[in-house]
Amino acid sequence: MATYKKRGYKPKTKEEIEHVAEENSTTAEVFNTLDETASKTEDWVIKNQKYIFVLIAIVAAVVLGYLGYKEFIAKPAQTEAMNDMFQAQKYYNEAIVATDKDSLFNLALNGGEGKYGMLDIVSEHSGTPAANLANYYAGMAYLNMKDYKNAVTYLSNFSSNDEDEVFGPIAKGAIGDAFVQLNQKEDALGYYIEAAEMRKNDLTTPMYLYKAGITALDLGKAADALKYFKRIKEDFSSATEAIDIDLFIGKAEVLANK
């Protein structure tokens, strides 16, 4: 019966008395166990407090060290690197639209007017985001200058973050372009596919699917080429690459069925 649990109620029957005694005994055991555990914990803390304080100090030092590094070393280093990179980036941008491209790309790579070039940024500011970006610009400059091996080297050293939708795919695709020129078309195909899948968007995805399709056809992989061309038609019908895509689909179908 539940009535014996009401406040002020005294158990009367033998059954109720035994039940209450059992409950009190169980409760006492629980509290005794908690007391023993707490006591053991206190003893352990007292016995090991030296090590605990050392551990806390180490964690605090790591956290403060990281924050200090980020605030007083990483940020100033990045600012200095970006300032050093300004002129080199200016040369690179001018080279893109200039007639005499090679001389400006050379200045972008090696510096001019007493300023750093991209190669200097890579070596002097290693580990900074600016040095990472300089790898990209150096690789693209070498690609434009037809120095394909150096293009592959520097573009391979560039890494993009998850928020970047353009630089990463273009870097991978540019490595593919370099491998095509080096007559390593299997390698090129792999990079084109990687570039197409890396950051799916309406600009770079259809462009590298198209290049992957052309390269696959050249390698005798018509079925793969057909897959890439059809994807352009189905998913990127408004892209420039989709204008004559039916012709390429037809060609790939013929070759695939031979």
From TrEMBL:
The chain crosses the membrane at residues 51-69. Keywords: Membrane, Transmembrane, Transmembrane helix. The keyword DNA-binding does not apply. The keyword Mitochondrion does not apply. Signal peptide: none annotated. This is Tol-pal system YbgF family protein. It comes from Lacinutrix iliipiscaria.
